[in-house]
Amino acid sequence: xxxxxxxxxxxxxxxxxxxxxxxxxxxxxxxxxxxxxxxxxxxxxxxxxxxxxxxxxxxxxxxxxxxxxxxxxxxxxxxxxxxxxxxxxxxxxxxxxxxxxxxxxxxxxxxxxxxxxxxxxxxxxxxxxxxxxxxxxxxxxxxxxxxxxxxxxxxxxxxxxxxxxxxxxxxxxxxxxxxxxxxxxxxxxxxxxxxxxxxxxxxxxxxxxxxxxxxxxxxxxxxxxxxxxxxxxxxxxxxxxxxxxxxxxxxxxxxxxxxxxxxxxxxxxxxxxxxxxxxxxxxxxxxxxxxxxxxxxxxxxxxxxxxxxxxxxxxxxxxxxxxxxxxxxxxxxxxxxxxxxxxxxxxxxxxxxxxxxxxxxxxxxxxxxxxxxxxxxxxxxxxxxxxxxxxxxxxxxxxxxxxxxxxxxxxxxxxxxxxxxxxxxxxxxxxxxxxxxxxxxxxxxxxxxxxxxxxxxxxxxxxxxxxxxxxxxxxxxxxxxxxxxxxxxxxxxxx
Length: 495
Prior knowledge:
Blueprint: H1 5-47, H2 60-79, E1 83-84, E2 90-92, H3 93-96, H4 101-106, E3 110-112, H5 129-136, E4 137-141, H6 146-155, E5 164-173, E6 185-194, H7 200-215, E7 221-227, H8 228-238, H9 244-251, H10 254-268, H11 273-283, H12 291-294, H13 299-318, E8 324-327, E9 341-347, E10 356-361, E11 375-381, H14 382-391, E12 405-407, H15 412-427, E13 432-434, H16 441-451, E14 455-458, H17 461-466, E15 468-473, E16 479-483, H18 484-492
């Protein structure tokens, strides 16, 4: 059939217009889909689970390694006669404030009062944050374990025997800038003695440090010592006693910032050239005995020298297993409550800062209404110790393995038979489990491999009839048959 030219023109025109409308619709549809996609992406990103900066989840393999450090440390704490205690994660803000210096106070995590906390405050634009905090926050997360321990001693003084030796292994929180080896939530392991001013306690704690790191097989440990009385004497001779805290805080940073920046910061604090010259003379000292000449006009300084010599001589007489003992005039430990000997532990192989530290405190319980109670304590930085051990590959092999024996599941009848065998193994202290479903053999064996299971037990019709176990050693690939009693005897030695 022939179509006239005008009609053909109209048909082409209609098809072109239809095509244009379709392309326009398709374009708008694509844009709409693209828009919906991005909206969904934004919604999903907002709902994506996260944790606050400086906080961490711990997977099972990490926890096995951490628990290894905890167990070694706990064993030695108790070996030295220290008993465990725990204190709450939350303390009254008044308990913590003013105990760590101005810098420490800024790092305390405050907790808002419950309910409509602003309605009870006298908030205005002119009020400063410090004044407002007092009105809206009465509690805080603990900054360390030492101050809560001092509060604990005062509250429980009628129920404890002095001298009181305790250890504590709990997490603490600090609003610090997160970086390698420094987190906002981390664990501390503390050991303290209160109720005696005997310097033998310092000697014992240094030995404890040495033994823990020896048992963890961490090499090249350096235990650094100083005394706050020496620092007090030095600052007294500088004529800057009213700036003790400022000087100590800067001095504590020397190893990180260097002598030039230290001098600049000292001048910024208003120290005179003469004071800085005296400081530099002290920083040149490498041996304790050389301090006597510099501190001869300071009674408090000479007392510090006397205490430090006693501690170091006592430790050297007994000897250490693996650590090196070193005097360090730059060691300050910028916490307000230290009054005597101060200690810090470092590893020479991994540059990560201190692995632990502590010192003598004479006045900590006084602020809680209990004067004349001297104490001394040390702390282990578990997270940094973990990093050092991981970097140096010091964790024992198969530390992540918990299940020693796994029974393959061949079905309901076989699994019911395995339950009594499982109980026998567990009653003898052998960790064992039954795969929960009768999945393909390959899947079950892969599970055992991935979990580091040493033995896989296969129980079928023949094994049930004979009461013998078919056992595969997953490490060697060898397969053998024996009774449940012989299998227990073979493995009980490894428990």
